[in-house]
Amino acid sequence: MSTSSLPFAPSYSCMTEGSGRDGVEALKRTALLADLLKCDVTSKEEKIFLLPKDQRQDDRSPKHRDASAKVILRYVRWAIEILVVMIVVAGGLRLLSTKTADHGVKRALSFSLHRSGGKLMRGGHRLRSFLRHMKSHPPVLSELPSDADSTLGVDVELERAMDIYCRGPLLHAVQMANVFSDSKHFVDMPIKDNSSAFDILVDFQRRELAMTDYRPHAHDTHERLLRRFIDDHFDPPVELTRRNSSAGATDKATYVLNRYTSNANHPRPESYREDVLVAADIFDRTMQMEGGNAAATERHKDKYYNNVIAAAESGWDFSSRWLRDPLDMKSMVTTSVVPVDLNAIMYRVECNLMEFNRHLGNDVRAQFFERAAARRLEAIDAILWSEKHKSWKDYDLETDTHSTIVSVSDYTPLWAKAFNSTDIDRLKHVVTSLKSSGLLQVGGVQTTTIFSGQQWDSPNAWPPEQDIIVEGLLAVNTTESYSLARELSQTWTHTSLTAWKQTGLMFEKYNASEIGGLGAGGEYFPQFGFGWTNGVILKFLTIHQNLLLAE
Question: What CATH number belongs to 340-393+406-549?
Answer without folding.
Answer: 1.50.10.10
